[in-house]
Amino acid sequence: MGPNASEVTEGEGSRSRTLGRGIAVLHALAAAPDGATVAGLSTATGLDRAVLYRLLGTLGDEGLVVRDNGSRRYRLGVALIELGARAARGLEVRRHALPGMRQLLEQVREAVCLAVRDRGDVVVVDRLEPPGRGTRIGYPVGLRHPLGVNAHGRAVLSRLDAEAGEDLASHPGADPLTDRARGFAIATDEAGGEIVSVAAPILDADGDGIASVGIVAPSSRVQDPALLGPPVRALGREVSRRLGYREEAT
Predict the structure, then answer these.
(1) Range 107-128 average pLDDT
(2) What is the pLDDT of residues 68-109, one digit of tens each?
(3) CA 13 from chain center: how many Å?
(4) CB under 8 Å to 162, separation ≥6 — which residues?
(5) d(Cα 244, Cα 202) in Å, to the nearest integer?
(6) Separation in Å, CA 31 to CA 27, 126, 136, 146
(7) How far apart are CA 81 and CA 68, in angstroms?
(8) DSSP string covering the chain
(9) pLDDT, tens digit, 9 for 90 and up, residues 18-58
(10) Are 168 and 157 contacting, i.e. CB atoms less than 8 angstroms apart?
(11) CB 114 within 8 A of CB 127
(12) What span, in angstroms and rounded, lies between the C-alpha atoms of 148 and 165?
């Protein structure tokens, strides 16, 4: 979750205190899937109720939050979906990845996902689903999780420099050196071993991991995840090349 609103002060350069408080409210609602009352938001953000009512009124006018009159709980509004979709469409990495993601989907007949790095997390920004598959797994667009979790996070982690990745690499199960050497990461421990993911990093022109692309599937349909590694790695390298990365000669 984002910073507590009480930490956002007027002395922090040009940051807007009101905007910071509004963002804190949105983060608090994002962490409350069943919605939150004003009292709950006050506890989560440290904001006075009078301030919260003003913020919620403004956010509601813009469709960013909605209020259930029965439960008196506030939830995130659908306007955020529109904003998120526009942001995803504007990502250069997504534009370069989509054609190859469609080809990979036809090849493996499993869900193909694209995630981008956001500080110490990755966020799923696109997902292609094969038609006619009876079992679907939960790795939806908009999902955020730490680096070191799922193959998508571990793939990005493998391409961070030592200073940036040192603490993150201690996450249980993460093996950034192995993942970097083979060019893709495998994770089979999500949801009690019922989900397997294979992902490769996407690099910018400087060779930094900015995103990852790969496959997420029920483990019952993937007998040997390593066999999915080469086509996933090839896609990651192609998208990296389109973004300006030039692999060093060996």
Answers:
(1) 91
(2) 888 889 998 888 876 776 666 557 898 899 999 999 999 999
(3) 29
(4) none
(5) 11
(6) 6, 21, 24, 15
(7) 18
(8) ----GGG--TTSTT--HHHHHHHHHHHHHHT-TT-B-HHHHHHHH---HHHHHHHHHHHHHTTSEEEETTTTEEEE-THHHHHHHHHHHT-HHHHHHHHHHHHHHHHH-SEEEEEEEETTEEEEEEEE--TT-S---S--TT-EEETTSHHHHHHHHTTS-HHHHTTGGGSTT--HHHHHHHT-EEEEEEGGGTEEEEEEEEE-TTS-EEEEEEEEEEGGG-S-GGGGHHHHHHHHHHHHHHTT--PPP-
(9) 888 988 998 898 888 889 999 999 999 999 889 999 999 99
(10) yes
(11) yes
(12) 10
Hey, what are 86's tokens?
């526009």
